[in-house]
Specification:
- Helix content is about 20%, strand content about 30%.
- By secondary structure, it is of the alpha+beta class.
- The protein has one domain (about 1-20, about 25-70): NE1680-like fold.
């Protein structure tokens, strides 16, 4: 399974993963509005990936199949 990663112009360190390039048809309007202009960052082949930095590959695959997208938010700030 391949997916396409996009960053938005308004939300730093926030990414949207889509199954098909430039197909935002299943992305809620609220997310599109909050993210701003989406810019394609990369294509990932999830069939050959076992690990990603911030999300479990199986969780990502499930979200893309079930919802058509996965929204990756930035990690919480550490106040320590």
């Amino acid at each position: 399974m391949k997916c396409h990663v996009y960053k938005g112009s308004r939300k730093p360190d926030t990414y949207v993963f889509l199954r098909n390039r430039d197909d935002v048809s299943r992305l809620p309007a609220e997310i599109i509005a909050a993210m701003g202009t989406l810019t394609h960052v990369m294509e990932l082949d999830l069939a050959v990936r076992q690990h990603l930095a911030r999300v479990d590959v199986e969780t990502l695959k499930s979200a893309i199949v079930e919802r058509g997208f996965y929204l990756q938010l930035p990690p919480p700030l550490s106040l320590a």
